[in-house]
Amino acid sequence: MSLIHILWGSQSGNAQNLAQVIGDSLIDHFPVEVIDMGELDPEGIQEIKNLIIVTSTYGDGEAPDNASEWLSFVKFAEDLDLSHLNYAVIGLGDTYYPHFCQAGKDFDQYLSKHGAHAMLKRLDCDLYYEEQYPEWVEELKSVLKSHFPD
Ligand SMILES: Cc1cc2nc3c(=O)[nH]c(=O)nc-3n(C[C@H](O)[C@H](O)[C@H](O)COP(=O)(O)O)c2cc1C
């Protein structure tokens, strides 16, 4: 099966750590790479088949600095066909802010708009994300196993 790319957008480390935890929990079953979004040209999305996005939200509902180029790309690209792409998004945020988990919501919206297929429902986590993500990761694992039985 093709590689699963886990891309993280993070300002102060939470989403980065979570991306690594998710990678560690998948690695026994699937080929996985955990990547800083700021280190990968967004045009590279054309070569990716399975994408997990782990991102926090900053500012007034904006993406973290290292994810802003990716978010702009999927937001403004015209004629972008992502029908080859399976994806899942987990957002980290804080319900205190009016634009709760907006960066994760935006990624979900724009990937889907360009024809990518959501493998499971996006999870928007608040500050208690460590209690919230394990169930989502288990669901992700079973979805991936059913997509890639070998
Ligand atoms: C200055 C600042 C702005 C923030 N803005 C938002 C926001 O607009 N929406 C939201 O849901 N969370 C917001 N947060 C909360 C962060 O997304 C949350 O703390 C997250 O866990 C940080 O993850 P990170 O360490 O990966 O960047 C903000 C936090 C800070 C410090």
CATH class call: Alpha Beta
How much helical structure, as a percent, in the residues? 25-40%
β-strand amount = 15-25%
Average pLDDT rating: 96
For the biggest sheet, the summary is: 6 strands, parallel
- Tell me the span between the first and last alpha carbons: 8 Å
* Rg from alpha-carbon coordinates: 14 Å
| Count of alpha/pi helices | 4
- What would the CATH topology be? Rossmann fold
The kinds of small molecule bound in this structure are: flavin mononucleotide
Report the principal-axis shape: globular
Give the topology string: H per helix, E per strand. EHEEHEHEEH
Total strands: 6
CATH superfamily: Flavodoxin domain
Count of all domains: 1
Low-confidence stretches: none
Oligomer: single chain
What is the CATH architecture term? Answer: 3-Layer(aba) Sandwich
Assign the structural class, choosing from mainly alpha, mainly beta, alpha/beta, alpha+beta, or little secondary structure. Answer: alpha/beta
Plain-language structure description:
The chain is an alpha/beta fold and 150 residues long. The protein has a single domain (4-147), classed as Rossmann fold (3-Layer(aba) Sandwich), CATH 3.40.50.360. It is built from four helices and six strands. The chain has helices at 14-26, 68-76, 102-113, 129-147; strands at 4-9, 32-36, 50-56, 86-92, 117-118, 123-125. Strands 1, 2, 3, 4, 5 and 6 form a six-stranded parallel sheet that branches. β4, α3 (102-113) and β5 (117-118) form a beta-alpha-beta unit. The longest helix has 19 residues, at 129-147. The radius of gyration is 14 Å and the shape is globular. Bound molecules: flavin mononucleotide. The site of flavin mononucleotide (FMN) has 21 residues, from α1.
